[in-house]
Specification:
The chain is an alpha/beta fold and about 170 residues long. It contains six helices and five strands. Strands 2-1-3-4-5 form a five-stranded mixed beta sheet, with helices on both faces. It is globular, with a radius of gyration of 15 Å.
């Protein structure tokens, strides 16, 4: 899964985080830890990456990240609400973390529906003192392509956030 594009994004993100003095965390479902894996594949990443959660089941989302089971029952795991709650849960549970990204989606090949097709991924991005951002994409391709695209999108979003003038350095 770690290819040159992902490695380059991870290196740029780690450098941007260091420059800002920001610590990162992840909360992952459909990627199974690939975002954290991409970051920690880079030597020296421990000065930036605090940790991450792989919460594949709804029960893990609730137990580890504090996602409300009523929200899960009402909108399902693949939703903006759950992505937001996952990002906020990681932000509140990881020590000294400043910025978290969360992903939840349908990587396929099965599990999709008309409302939630294979390739649909919801993202959440939480930063202390800011409103949690959410967005979604429907990525084409097979399971590997969808998961790869999700990792790239998450790393790019974190990089974009690092470049935002509105983010104060701690």
């Amino acid at each position: 899964m770690m290819d040159a594009e992902i490695e380059a994004l991870a290196i740029r993100l780690l450098e941007a985080s260091r420059a800002r003095g920001l610590k990162l965390g992840t909360a992952e479902s459909c990627t199974g830890g690939l975002i954290a894996g991409a970051l920690t594949a880079i030597a020296g990443s421990s000065d930036v990456v605090v940790g991450g959660f792989v919460t594949y089941s709804n029960e893990a989302k609730t137990a580890l990240l504090g996602v409300d089971p009523d929200v899960l029952a009402a909108v399902g795991a693949v939703s903006a609400e759950v992505a937001s709650a996952m990002a906020e849960g990681a932000l509140s549970r990881l020590p000294d973390v400043d910025l978290t990204v969360a992903v939840t989606g349908v990587a396929g090949p099965g599990g999709g529906s008309a409302e939630k097709p294979v390739g649909l991924v919801h993202f959440g991005l939480a930063l202390w003192g800011r409103e949690t951002a959410t967005w979604s994409h429907v990525f084409p391709g097979d399971r590997n392509a969808i998961r790869r695209a999700t990792v790239i999108c998450a790393l790019e979003a974190l990089l974009e956030t690092m470049g935002a003038a509105s983010i104060p350095s701690p």
